[in-house]
Design brief:
The chain has helices at 12-25, 37-44, 48-60, 124-136, 150-161, 176-184, 201-207, 231-241, 297-307, 316-327, 329-355, 375-384, 412-427, and strands at residues 64-66, 72-74, 92-93, 143-147, 167-172, 188-195, 198-199, 214-217, 248-253, 274-279, 291-295, 360-361, 367-371, 387-388, 390-391, 402-406. It is of the alpha/beta class and 435 residues long. The strands form 4 sheets. Strands 4-11-10-9-8-5-6-7 form an 8-stranded mixed beta sheet, sandwiched between helices. The protein has a 4-stranded antiparallel beta sheet with strand order 12-13-16-15, with helices on one face. A two-stranded antiparallel ribbon has the order 1-2. A hairpin with a 5-residue loop joins β12 (360-361) and β13 (367-371). The longest helix is centred in the C-terminal third of the chain and has 27 residues, at 329-355. The model has no long low-confidence stretch (mean pLDDT 91).
Length: 435
């Protein structure tokens, strides 16, 4: 079916909405080409300017891209909601990216007074605890805000400083959520290759020859590759970035204390605009929806000003609960055990893969990145063998094919069976082979 058969409307807003509805329902698909402006205008009996306005709205929403002579097409990673498909019975989920529930603290909400309008946005004790964490990790002095998770924090700081069309340097491969967020904000990702130590120095240097507006970096537990800045690489990158004091630097520390690697920041006192976002989702639990944003005073002021117009504040019940957990010594011991356990599971899989000659990466965090030639064949073969993993396509911009495996619940004995199953799949005629 042609895309234009389900585009309708007599205004730019209605035409754009019909395309978005078609994409959300599955009637349109990523990669589909929209009809030429004049052709669609003729069919809908509207002016070409109306169709052009609709396409502009879709571009601003991050749903389509103008692709030169190929026309306007739906982005391959268009940010629309699609319901999750339940996994078949008996399949081990190594795709979702969740932490191990057994390594999360039990939640016991403490009685707290009702919070009313007119009070401070954030719990003072929680802000103090967050600031102490940032100080210990060498993050420059600054104000702290509280947001509803890491991506909410990243979105808020980007919205306050960037405009549609701005270029943003990102890791390649990069977390899907970041790429979808940039697309929804009509920001242009600039891919920078990473290895086990983070951004490759020469690739970042080349990207800075035409300075973009911002950079988003994951200092440890990089998703999907598990990369973590080494002290040496961090010093090199810090020196390079310091030459661009107007660059807006955002650091995403989504795994925090369970990353299994020390935190090495790229920030220096020379940066005018910066933000470090630290979530508790992987360490304390995704449903808490709390992240801390340390940033320069102007950025925090803008975040809090915008919060007063919308959500007003992150629930103080959640803020008090997170503060209570951070102060609890038992939580600290559990987080240490979680970091050690995840490292053991990650290393067990890497060792099993290495014994079979399969290239894989994962020096920190909850994920292992495995190079393959054919992602779809590897994913299908593993699903048939009882393993759900993610194809690397949506994480990649220019990097090579791979699959992402979340090791959070993968026991060492299971890692051996997984690696053996993958080796068979990669060696089978007509199947994927190691890259």
């Amino acid at each position: 079916m042609l895309v234009h058969t389900y585009i309708h409307g007599d205004t730019g807003v209605k035409i754009a909405a019909s395309v978005e509805q078609a994409l959300s329902s599955g009637r349109a698909a990523p990669g589909d080409v929209l009809p030429p402006v004049r052709a669609l205008a003729g069919r809908l009996l509207v002016s070409p300017a109306t169709v052009a306005a609709a396409y502009r709205l879709l571009r601003d929403r991050g749903l389509v891209i103008a692709d030169g002579r190929r026309g306007t097409r739906i982005r391959d990673t268009a940010p629309v909601f699609t319901p999750a498909t339940p996994l078949p019975a008996g399949v081990h989920d190594l795709a979702t990216g969740n932490p191990d529930p057994r390594l999360l603290p039990r939640l016991r909400p403490a009685p707290a007074p009702q919070w009313l309008y007119g009070g401070p946005l954030n719990d003072p004790e929680l802000l103090s605890l967050a600031r102490a964490q940032f100080d210990a990790d060498g993050v420059p002095p600054g104000n702290v805000a509280v947001t509803s998770g890491a991506l909410d924090g990243i979105e808020r700081v980007l919205r306050e400083h960037l405009r549609p069309g701005d270029r943003v340097m990102v890791e390649d491969p990069c977390f899907i959520g970041v790429l979808d967020l940039l697309a929804s904000l009509a920001l242009t990702p600039v891919p920078v290759a990473v290895d086990d130590e983070g951004f490759r120095f020469e690739d970042l240097r080349r990207a800075l020859l035409r300075p973009p507006a911002a950079l988003i970096a994951t200092p440890r537990a990089q998703n999907p590759t598990g990369a973590a800045f080494s002290p040496r690489r961090a010093r090199q990158l810090r020196s390079l970035i310091a030459q661009h004091p107007d660059l807006f630097v955002v650091e995403d520390d989504h795994a925090g204390p369970v990353a299994g690697a020390d935190y090495h920041t790229l920030l220096t006192h020379k940066h005018h605009r910066w933000a470090v976002v630290r979530s508790v989702s992987k360490s304390l639990g995704p449903d808490l929806r709390v992240a801390f944003v340390a940033a320069d005073a102007l950025t925090v002021a803008r975040i809090e000003s915008r919060q007063t117009l919308g959500i007003r504040w992150v629930s103080h019940i959640l803020q008090r609960l997170v503060a209570q957990l951070i102060k609890d010594r038992a939580t600290g011991r559990l987080l240490d055990r979680a970091a050690t356990t995840y490292a053991g599971r990650r290393n067990a899989l890497l060792e099993e893969l290495a014994q079979r000659g399969i290239e894989a990466h994962g020096v920190s965090g909850l994920n292992v990145w495995i190079r393959v030639h054919d992602e779809s064949s590897a994913v299908r073969g593993l699903l048939d063998s009882g393993w759900a993993v993610n194809a690397g396509e949506r994480y990649r911009i220019e990097s090579d094919p791979a699959i992402r495996v979340t090791i959070a619940t993968l026991e060492p004995a299971e890692a051996r069976r997984f690696a053996a199953d993958l080796a068979i799949i990669l060696a089978s005629p007509g199947r994927s082979s190691v890259a």
